[in-house]
Description:
Elements: E1 2-5, E2 11-15, E3 18-22, E4 27-29, H1 34-43, E5 46-49, H2 66-70, H3 77-88, H4 96-108
Antiparallel strand pairs: 1-4, 1-5, 2-3
Amino acid sequence: MKVTNNQAGPRGLNTKDGPVLVEPGQSAEVELSDAELKVAKATGWFGFEGGGKADRPHEPGDSKTAAEVLALADGNFMAFKSAASKLLGDKTPEKKAEIVAALEDLATKPE
């Protein structure tokens, strides 16, 4: 699939063939595992082309579950906080531990 770096600085990807550095505005043809694709999409740093539905970027109407957002907690903080704010809205705490607690509470609430 074709991956384009949409950021002002270089960004790296862990491809099936090893690490690849993509310069700002540049694209690379890469093969990513499902897990790496999910992480790369969550950062918001890249644009994606090619492949099936699983290879398309996360669309604005799509929403993650609290459990999916919690899985991002150990990655990029701003990507994690952005995903959390889509679920928590204006009540999103500022600190990581408080966000995790709020998401855990949300994940355990019956619908």
